[in-house]
């Protein structure tokens, strides 16, 4: 349940400081355990705000994920798909994805609500596209009707990707500590199994995607996404190669080669933008984990997802 009224900033601070806390290993990022999930401390008020004040519209589309599971890619694909009638993919140099990072094209609910800037959402015309890393339980499900697209990824690859990403700001970060923190459930937005299972169990109303499937057949997944958000591709669009144009525009090679994604830092963070675009392959864990470590992690995953119908 949402805690008793805590409207003022002071009350919020009291609420946050009473929650269990820990630091992400090798960083100064403090996490707080709120309703069973380890959220970055500054996002706890965002979780409360989302639960209480977020007023979704019926045609809203929310991309949800754990960090390092393909959020940037899915944001780009969903934006290009939903904006295709205003911005033809492959139709010249005016496409926003050529000038802005994918994250700048899609508002981040967690940061908007944490910064008291959620009113910015009200002026966005429908259908709105937004993204979050929050678990489903932090979204106002009872005020439902909006569409959620979730992306998950093989957990060992997620952990490897996370280590590389964090290392771009913390070069000394230990690989073993990062993996341990992910698989003990205490990592950012974790436990990852509860995050994934929350969306998985709602998958009758959530479009549940997997990063590996997106890599295998991006075009088919873009079609699925377009149907789900109520904007299926017409025959004319198919014939004109619009799906291929979107896939090409959002490919790792294409995004990575753009000046906007090569230089500078992520908004409000000390991670270089280029750290978002690394290798983009399935199974990179074999290049990082000893077989014993991988086996131990697979056991944890097998145990946590047992009986759910979902496996990695
Ligand atoms: P790797 O570190 O394994 O390469 P997120 O966007 O959720 O932070 O996820 C980052 C992961 O997605 C990174 O994985 C990154 O390389 C990969 N990625 C980013 N853009 C991509 C794209 N356009 N196509 C495929 N993978 C992409």
Give a written overview of the molecule.
It is an enzyme of class 2 (transferase). This is Sulfotransferase. InterPro entries: P-loop_NTPase, Sulfotransferase_dom. This protein has helices at 9-17, 44-53, 71-82, 96-99, 102-105, 109-114, 155-167, 175-183, 192-200, 211-216, 218-228, 235-239, 242-249, 252-256, 259-262, 291-305; strands at 21-23, 30-34, 37-40, 61-65, 129-132, 147-152, 206-210. It has a four-stranded parallel sheet, sandwiched between helices. A three-stranded antiparallel sheet has the order 1-2-3, with no helix packed on it. The radius of gyration is 19 Å and the shape is globular. 37% of the residues are buried. β2 and β3 (37-40) form a beta hairpin. With 312 residues, it is an alpha/beta fold. The structure holds adenosine-3'-5'-diphosphate. Adenosine-3'-5'-diphosphate binds next to α3, α7 and α14.
List keywords for this structure.
single chain, 312 residues, alpha/beta, 4-stranded parallel β-sheet, 3-stranded antiparallel β-sheet, 42% helix, binds adenosine-3'-5'-diphosphate
List the helices and strands and how they pair.
Blueprint: H1 9-17, E1 21-23, E2 30-34, E3 37-40, H2 44-53, E4 61-65, H3 71-82, H4 96-99, H5 102-105, H6 109-114, E5 129-132, E6 147-152, H7 155-167, H8 175-183, H9 192-200, E7 206-210, H10 211-216, H11 218-228, H12 235-239, H13 242-249, H14 252-256, H15 259-262, H16 291-305
Parallel strand pairs: 4-5, 4-6, 6-7
Antiparallel strand pairs: 1-2, 2-3
The structure holds adenosine-3'-5'-diphosphate.
């Amino acid at each position: 349940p949402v805690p008793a009224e805590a409207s003022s900033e002071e009350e919020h601070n009291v609420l946050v400081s009473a929650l269990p806390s820990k630091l992400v290993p090798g960083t100064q990022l403090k996490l707080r355990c709120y309703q069973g999930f380890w959220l970055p401390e500054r996002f706890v008020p965002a979780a409360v705000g989302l639960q209480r004040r977020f007023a979704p519209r019926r045609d809203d589309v929310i991309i949800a994920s754990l960090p390092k599971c393909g959020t940037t890619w899915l944001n780009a694909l969903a934006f290009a798909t939903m904006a295709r009638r205003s911005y033809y993919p492959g139709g010249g140099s005016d496409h926003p994805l050529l000038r802005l990072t994918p994250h700048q094209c899609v508002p981040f609910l967690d940061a908007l609500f944490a910064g008291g800037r959620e009113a910015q959402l009200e002026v966005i015309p429908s259908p709105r596209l937004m993204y979050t890393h929050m678990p489903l339980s932090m979204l106002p499900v009872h005020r439902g009707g909006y569409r959620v697209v979730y992306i998950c990824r093989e957990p060992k690859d997620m952990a490897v990707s996370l280590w590389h990403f964090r290392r771009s700001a913390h070069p000394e970060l230990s690989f073993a500590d990062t993996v341990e923190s992910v698989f003990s459930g205490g990592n950012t937005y974790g436990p990852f199994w509860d995050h994934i299972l929350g969306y998985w169990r709602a998958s009758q109303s959530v479009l549940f995607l997997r990063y590996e499937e997106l890599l295998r057949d991006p075009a088919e997944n873009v079609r699925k996404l377009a149907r789900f958000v109520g904007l299926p591709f017409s025959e004319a669009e198919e014939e004109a190669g619009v799906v291929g144009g979107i896939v090409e525009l959002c490919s790792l090679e294409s995004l990575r080669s753009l000046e906007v994604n090569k230089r500078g830092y992520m908004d409000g963070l000390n991670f270089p933008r280029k750290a978002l675009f690394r290798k983009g392959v399935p199974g990179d864990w074999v290049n990082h984990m000893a077989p014993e470590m991988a086996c131990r992690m697979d056991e944890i995953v097998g145990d946590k997802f047992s009986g759910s119908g979902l496996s990695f």
